[in-house]
Amino acid sequence: MVAPKVSQWIGQKCFSAVHQRNLVYNTCWEDPRIDREALKLTSDDSVLVITSAGCNALDYALQSPRNIFAVDMNPLQNALLELKIAAIKTIDFADFFQVFGRGHHKDWNVLYHDGIRPELDPQYHSTWDRRADFFTGTSRRSSFYFRGTSGLFAWMINGYLNRSPGLRDSIETILAAESVEQQHEIYDEHEINRRLWNKPLRWMLRRDTTMAMLGVPRSQRNQLDQDFPGGVSGFIQDRIETVFKRIPLRDNYFWRVYLTGQYTPQCCPEYLKHDNFEKLKKGLVDRVHTQTNTVEGFLSKHDQPISRFVLLDHMDWLYSRYPERLASEWQSIVDRASASSRVLWRSAALDVDFVDPLRVTAAGQSVQLGELLNYQHDLAGELHARDRVHTYGSFYIADLAATSNVTGVAA
Description:
Layout: H1 4-21, H2 32-39, E1 46-50, H3 55-61, E2 67-72, H4 75-90, H5 93-100, H6 108-119, H7 125-129, H8 133-136, H9 148-163, H10 167-175, H11 180-189, H12 192-196, H13 199-205, H14 208-213, H15 218-227, H16 231-246, H17 253-260, H18 274-281, E3 288-292, H19 295-301, E4 306-310, H20 315-318, H21 323-336, E5 337-347, E6 359-362, E7 365-368, E8 373-375, H22 377-385, E9 394-400
Parallel strand pairs: 1-2, 1-4, 2-3, 4-5
Antiparallel strand pairs: 5-9, 6-7, 8-9
């Protein structure tokens, strides 16, 4: 039996090795539809979002905010967003959808070298020169959505579905259902739960290497092991069953691309719809700017206020191992926030208790962060229930009080 501390060390090493050398996310796993309702973007807003695969930065751009700053420590995640931006500017919609909707294009090399590459910042040339097979459809993992570490796991799951007698047909049937009621009936009648969750799959989901491939650090796994009956594998099983039986799948492009390796014109991110593509091409895409940096590192050099912060779930990565960095990051947010700013974040935990106690300086006074945050609990709860991804334990929307309003707090 591996000692807990040794197991945690191995898990951290696996996670670091995966994230420092690989494209992890080939698509975003945060639902921008609920983000749009929470953010209420206007033309006066400047947004900071952690890049991930860049899908949601492009989605927010369609709301015409002043600027979107996509920030990520992993340069390959920014390279992917920059590739999408260059492709939007240089190729037509049919080709763009074939590449990023279907996940491959037989003429990728021509599209890339004749149009996209010259538009790319030279720092990203070698990245995509070496990865032509991500999009040509000629390798065993024929779709781009089977590339990267999360894509590799998706490819393995698809292989599992294809090998299990009748399971692929059952998945296709449930994806084609026209109502939640039909989904529920198909899931039960086809016994998807029993056929999907066998011992090898459960074993695989308990491995630190598997979780690292999916972008889940040890700290998140620990949260789920503590908070949820059955631990991380029980949580995943419960959430997948909820998605299949209780959330409409007709427009759930997150699970469609994961289970099939491609989108359809009717079930895809907003940036992959023709009219929206044209809006981006006509200028909205120019409002998206990438930065390879930490949130704090970017904000320390940025000299303009930010009114909207989308932090995804990355605080789960920091709080257990680097609490001082988390506090420092929030200090940078407080320092750079506009007078009416809003912060969104997600967590694997069912209830986050590590944000409010953080201490920051506001208006020259040391205060607990919770004293500056006005939570929109009802809105967050309503939106979280409608989240199409449904893999997070909790969702938070908080307005950050202007520091000039901080009074009467002892230093």
